[in-house]
Amino acid sequence: MKQCVHVLRNFSRRAESGRSRSEYVDQLVADIATYYGYNDFLAQKLFQLFPVAEAIEFFEANEVARPVTIRTNTLKTRRRDLAQVLINRGVNLEPIGKWTNVGLQVFESSVPIGATPEYLAGHYMLQAASSFLPVVALAPQPEERVLDMASAPGGKTTHIAALLQNTGVVFANDANKARTKSLTANVHRLGCKNVTVCSYDGREFPKVIGGFDRVLLDAPCSGTGVISKDSSVKVNKSERDFQLLSHLQKQLILCAIDSVSPDSKTGAVVVYSTCSVTVDENEAVVDYALRKRPNVKLVDTGIGFGREGFTKFRGKVFHPSVSLTRRFYPHVHNMDGFYVAKFKVEKRRKPDTSKEIAEQEAAVNDVDMEPTRFNDNEDQEFIEESKRKQMKAKGLRVAPRKKPDVSASV
Ligand SMILES: C[S@@+](CC[C@H](N)C(=O)[O-])C[C@H]1O[C@@H](n2cnc3c(N)ncnc32)[C@H](O)[C@@H]1O
What we know:
CATH superfamily of the largest domain: Vaccinia Virus protein VP39
CATH topology of the largest domain: Rossmann fold
Distance between the termini: 47 Å
Largest sheet: 9 strands, mixed
Number of domains: 3
Bound molecules: S-adenosylmethionine
Structural class: alpha/beta
């Protein structure tokens, strides 16, 4: 691998005669896949995100655990007080960084950090630093109505509740009912009194309830930002998984936008985040939302660091404002890979024609896969598959899959 990287950094001077650049790249990606244990498809997909030498840093960082971090629950204590109590118990810790005033990094501990009396009393949440970011961007204000559309197990819900100072209301939704148990447990442990837990498919909003000041969509994703925590991602994701996820994310983001009241005096904000680093799940979804909902615009996340989102990627061109979105990487920021985009929602211009009205209404169920084009029948198959999964998750009976119509293809 080192030899290939060396050559690719100065190809014209170092390449063996007769060997093309793409031969070296193919060799390097194959070696990465073998050495780090990825399937070829994912190794290639992740490799494409970075310049050659940086790609190796990214794959290397995925082999190392990120720092253990906790978030102070300001509904029950202050960071300084919590730090002191934990130090007295033999925990070696330090504030995370200037960008958060509630995070602590734990270096070592003589007690299990997930079972101290302070943990059980809800004084803190064990939470990755990257998970604070979407809520920092959301910046909820006291008395607001907030929807956390995919919220289990509640790291971000409880953070939102704390920033609301237990005023207003947080609708904490998750399509997976089983996961709402841990969500409810965390809501109780942390003493959040302004949270309503519910379990709908996010695509049912805003029909279920709408008119929120702010909506967080911490979307279901492939988890390519958290490979150091879950190495199964290295081998269990295929191209089809990314297509299905991107499709679902596009549907959910439109519903998140439509659930916000543009008349909100304090908010009218949507934050979209994933713990994935792929463009399909991030910039492509955000760009899709900008195209389908002309009443939204991207704004600064307010996080203050992070790499700019891509405005161009492998032949795809996104809206220039996508550079306002932020990417976080394990090898750069020493936190899980993450992506955060913040939208401001404005009043919808009245659609001029009935055709426009129909188009706006249909967009959620009829996600186009642009700029990559897909066959409509295939799309239908993905939608059906995703509906089946949702029904199964809700414990509903699912009809057997339809057999493909072989006669039609002969
Ligand atoms: C990244 S996790 C959310 C983590 C959570 N925000 C937190 O901070 O603890 C994504 C969640 O989306 C939920 N989910 C998947 N499909 C969904 C859908 N169609 N509607 C709503 N939630 C969905 C999953 O059950 C999962 O809990």
